[in-house]
Amino acid sequence: QNARIKIDLDRTIGEVDEKIYGNFVEHLGRNVYGGIYDPGNPLSDEKGFRKDVLEAVKGLNVSLTRYPGGNFVSNYQWLDGVGPREDRPTRLELAWNRLESNEFGTNEFMEYAKLMGTQPYFAVNLGTGTIEEARRWVEYTNVASGPKYAELRKEHGYTEPHNIIYWSLGNEMDGPWQMGHLSAEDYSKKAREAGKLMKLTDPSIKLVAAGSSNFYPGADPMQWNKVVIDELKDVVDYLALHMYVGNVDDDYYSFVASPLVLEQRTRLVKGLIDEAMHRAERADRDPIYIAWDEYNIWYRWRTGDAMTGERALEERYNLEDALVIASFLNAFIRNSDVVKIANMAQLVNVIAPIFAEEDGMFLQTIYHPMALFANHVFGTALDVYVDSEKYDTGDFALGMGEQRADLKDVPYLDVSATYHGDEVIINVVNRHKDKAITTDIIAQEGAFTGEFEVYEVNGPDIKAENDFGKTNVETMKKSLKGKGDKITYSFPAHSFTLIKA
Ligand code: AHR
Question: Which residue ranges does the record assign to the Alpha-L-arabinofuranosidase C-terminal domain (predicted)?
Fold first, then answer.
């Protein structure tokens, strides 16, 4: 019997927010220096931006780009990175143990963001930084003229304000590894006051609180979320969550199911938000939304030297990783009512879809599902019925030293769908390692008609990687003809398929 996917346009979840196709530029390894920015390199433009890298970045249609960290931000003085280059100090960068020249800072990032066509999303330092430093940064970037820091920006050659709307109040403040780590209560107090000053400076900004990132033994991530939501529910617009997974035990079927844990965490946090809003009788304000503002696969370059210096976190990805990314994105779509921001971590070289050396670059496997979603999957998310064979994972490690999971009834087909204009966009990961799955796609009402665009990300086997001059995993364009209330399609083994019907 064929598997079945039923599409019902009346069963809606929420509007897909394009900000779920975000990314992240941290001052870490060769993400900025030697990644997006490489002055003097013949491949760079006159401002030092790598032209080949920028072209690849544009293909990701990045909606919202987080900057400048990450762990880096928790000891970052933003004033070091503005003004004449020759006056900018070199600092010891403690998060990733490198020297930070500060050659690239706020204004360089904003110039790059324009070239990318992305909205900026800044994180302030709530580790070693003060609430007044955070406020001054908003004044520098967003106030047109008048006060000292707005005038300073103008002196630096930027007459118009940058108008940065999205600001996160610190990074991973629940993690003991964070410089200036705080308890949930202390963090909430500091974030509340920082947010207050920042909003007094520019009331149009949106604030993101640091939710859970610490899933190491002994941590209580949901308790952290509960306190932060309770304390900041009338101040912030989003709660940031982070998640990295890894195939540490080389257990393919468990690994490709791991995005379901992100979905469980999403539902848990949604419950906490609903409960806090209900108790506070805050039905009159917009709900707090979830920002998955760091997610990816990260386990290979995650110990010892791989964590520091020039070449930190230079993870190389394979096909199974690309399937995990497609399923993360499916999970965001399926939770479109609450997930309104997501940022893949990160953009270039550092756990990234784009990998560059001095003389060229290539697209990693994970680039392809990301680019497909960000260029095609918009509109209203649909609650899709899926009937496919299932499996149990058994107990498995989710990532490096973090929590374990044990998932039951994982469908081989991982599906999301949206309705946009007069098109239905269906996104299907076939997790099966060896078998194509023949599937009836059934329209509950109306009919399919015509020739549909089909895109498939696949490769010779689940461990296939890309490299310089070697493309094993990529997007293939196919087509499909259909008429009537049912189309039948065979999803190849270990593939991601996007159908526009
Ligand atoms: O993305 C790499 C790091 O992962 C970020 O700096 C930090 O926020 C997280 O721990």
Answer: 293-495
